[in-house]
From TrEMBL:
<dbReference type="InterPro" id="IPR050102">
    <property type="entry name" value="tRNA_sulfurtransferase_ThiI"/>
</dbReference>
<keyword id="KW-0963">Cytoplasm</keyword>
<keyword id="KW-0820">tRNA-binding</keyword>
<dbReference type="InterPro" id="IPR049961">
    <property type="entry name" value="ThiI_N"/>
</dbReference>
<keyword id="KW-0784">Thiamine biosynthesis</keyword>
<dbReference type="InterPro" id="IPR004114">
    <property type="entry name" value="THUMP_dom"/>
</dbReference>
<dbReference type="InterPro" id="IPR014729">
    <property type="entry name" value="Rossmann-like_a/b/a_fold"/>
</dbReference>
<comment type="function">
    <text>Catalyzes the ATP-dependent transfer of a sulfur to tRNA to produce 4-thiouridine in position 8 of tRNAs, which functions as a near-UV photosensor. Also catalyzes the transfer of sulfur to the sulfur carrier protein ThiS, forming ThiS-thiocarboxylate. This is a step in the synthesis of thiazole, in the thiamine biosynthesis pathway. The sulfur is donated as persulfide by IscS.</text>
</comment>
<dbReference type="Pfam" id="PF02926">
    <property type="entry name" value="THUMP"/>
</dbReference>
<keyword id="KW-0808">Transferase</keyword>
<feature type="domain" description="THUMP">
    <location>
        <begin position="61"/>
        <end position="168"/>
    </location>
</feature>
<dbReference type="InterPro" id="IPR054173">
    <property type="entry name" value="ThiI_fer"/>
</dbReference>
<keyword id="KW-0547">Nucleotide-binding</keyword>
<dbReference type="InterPro" id="IPR003720">
    <property type="entry name" value="tRNA_STrfase"/>
</dbReference>
<keyword id="KW-0694">RNA-binding</keyword>
<dbReference type="Pfam" id="PF02568">
    <property type="entry name" value="ThiI"/>
</dbReference>
<feature type="binding site">
    <location>
        <begin position="210"/>
        <end position="211"/>
    </location>
    <ligand>
        <name>ATP</name>
    </ligand>
</feature>
Amino acid sequence: MYKAFLIKYGEIGVKGKNRYLFEDALVRQIRYALKEVDGEFNVTKENGRIYATAVSDFDYDEAVAALKRVFGIIGICPVVQIEDNGFDDLAKHVVEYFDATYPDKNITFKVNARRARKNYPMDSMEINMELGGRLLDAFPELKVDVHKPEVLLQVEIRNKINIYSVEIPGPGGMPIGTAGKAMLLLSGGIDSPVAGYMIAKRGVQIEATYFHAPPYTSDRAKQKVVDLAKLVSRYSGPMVLNVVNFTDIQLAIYEKCPHDELTIIMRRYMMRIAEELGKKSGCLGLITGESIGQVASQTMQSLYCTNEVCEMPVFRPVIGFDKQEIIDLSEKIGTYETSIQPFEDCCTIFVAKHPVTKPNLNIIKNDEKHLDDCIEEMLKTAIDTVERIEIK
Ligand code: ATP
Ligand code: MG
């Protein structure tokens, strides 16, 4: 029955000159999302509205699911579009639409007609009255409520006529591409994909970096991160995933630094490399899935030590979330099942039995000096040999 979707989007931050940037970015993201759907669509901007119109048969559920992943959309209205073949024909379609959409007629309604085309022979008030009357004739159980109707039936007279009444909530946020780029430190865990999602939701384009330590971490662990990047990219659009070979650096830290500081020192080098890669590709910030107190490396003292190596702002959108809240969100966005696959992104030999929970920055810096003779070379090699995977 539906041939098109009217896309509703928020008005915040889209005034003046920014408005068309916002709308164009939204149109691009809608096109990208609908590519995954069985069916062809035209996505157009008309008179301050965005429509996704099907130009072939299409899978309705898939289309709605895809649109629900486009940041910037606040409402998705499935629209019946008809040609203007006179008022009687319109009324017939409206009655059919109502019957198909609301099997239970024990409801209140109101018709809200609008004419974008003023040469239509009736004005909005007349259309409202007349269509309301036809609906009441067809379904006598219906009641009109002009203040708080359960169903607000919209009829828009344009070149074609749009009929709709249902609004499916979108994800909100801002369209990707309206807010610069940031580098996500993406592990195979639950938290970092959620963190990437949350920053992308504000319109930020994402690039990702994964630290891989073969043979201590398996190819399966890497594949899991690729799979997670794909899941995040369903929201964020295509992204580059940098896979850094971190083995030599990890081994050097393991050999030369106190074992209770392994994780902190390792995390400091991860941040350094991610920032370096981020600078090269125009990122304006880093993103991690850290949450205060979750593990030893995420206490306030530990965060202070890892943060200290970065010049760029580090965004930690799940910082105040409990684990369960992060899990709930990962289930909602569809990354949870992949995140809990048992392929570890960090080999247990590199995890100390008793890691420091209150690292002291001066002591850490001092212990890092043990790496002075080799670390610069290793960092350079890690960055030069990075594998760039295009995630679509
Ligand atoms: P996650 O569920 O995201 O893996 P975690 O609870 O396992 O988080 P940590 O292992 O302490 O936490 O990592 C904290 C953050 O550091 C992660 O959220 C991620 O952003 C980054 N990180 C950790 N390990 C890696 C890795 N191997 N590659 C890329 N980023 C990583
Ligand atoms: Mg992890």
